[in-house]
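ok, trying the design again with the full structure, not the truncated one.
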């Protein structure tokens, strides 16, 4: 095992509203016990209040112990444009790789733990390795489904990603004056919000236009195809942690 451990996970793959957030957390391997003592677990198993409390402790520990945190926010614009010619899986390979680059140093040895987003977990690991152009034998990648439940560093990354995704949704709801809910298609609040936002003539940027439920809602109200995204100089990516706290 490498001297440093990196855990990587995402929040917001499936929602029709808001960003996809990927987090990479890098810590010395001997600091794993600190995360365990904080009560770190898969973010989905924790209440919102508990997640935010642990998130605060992780951020505090990262500042005092020099842990590295990389956050990639892929806004709906980036997701839609990527999916014109790519897939959600390939976008996640890119985002995971970018987050890892933010927290790694080529002079150090790492063990990298991925919560695999592909149905083929080993393939996801290979794709990350290829994306990182890994040539160093002292960097090891471990890619598994439910890694956030089985590795404490990945669990911590899942908490950071989830809390930042939740905060982004809360800001969007406040800015729009609409309760967007979780953003997931099955959420009644999100369903109602999609209907309301698609009723307007100008499609709000918080919606993922490549999602079928958004496309259907737009078609129902306007009887014409949903407008395609135009390529802008800004790619809909945010990676500065301080701007999302």
């Amino acid at each position: 095992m490498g001297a440093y451990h990196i855990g990587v996970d995402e929040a917001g793959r499936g929602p029709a509203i808001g960003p996809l957030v990927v987090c990479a957390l890098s810590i010395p391997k001997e600091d794993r016990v600190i995360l365990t003592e904080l009560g770190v677990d898969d973010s989905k198993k924790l209440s919102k209040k508990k997640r935010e409390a642990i998130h605060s402790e992780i951020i505090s520990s990262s500042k005092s112990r020099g842990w590295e945190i990389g956050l990639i926010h892929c806004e709906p614009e980036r997701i839609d444009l990527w999916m014109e010619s790519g897939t959600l899986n390939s976008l996640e390979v890119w985002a995971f790789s970018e987050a890892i680059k933010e927290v790694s140093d080529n002079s150090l040895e790492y063990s990298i733990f991925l919560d695999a987003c592909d149905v083929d977990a080993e393939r996801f690991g290979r794709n990350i390795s290829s994306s990182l152009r890994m040539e160093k034998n002292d960097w090891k990648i471990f890619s598994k489904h439910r890694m956030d439940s089985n590795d404490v560093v990945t669990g911590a990354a899942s908490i950071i990603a989830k809390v930042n995704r939740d905060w982004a949704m809360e800001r969007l709801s406040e800015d729009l004056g609409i309760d967007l809910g979780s953003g997931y298609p099955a959420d009644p609040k999100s369903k109602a919000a999609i209907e309301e936002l698609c009723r307007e003539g100008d499609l709000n940027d918080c919606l993922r236009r490549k999602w079928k439920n958004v496309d259907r809602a737009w078609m129902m109200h306007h009887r014409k195809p949903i407008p395609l995204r135009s390529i802008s100089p800004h790619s809909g990516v945010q990676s500065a942690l301080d701007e999302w706290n």
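Keeping the full-length input from now on. The chain has two domains: 4-170, 177-222.
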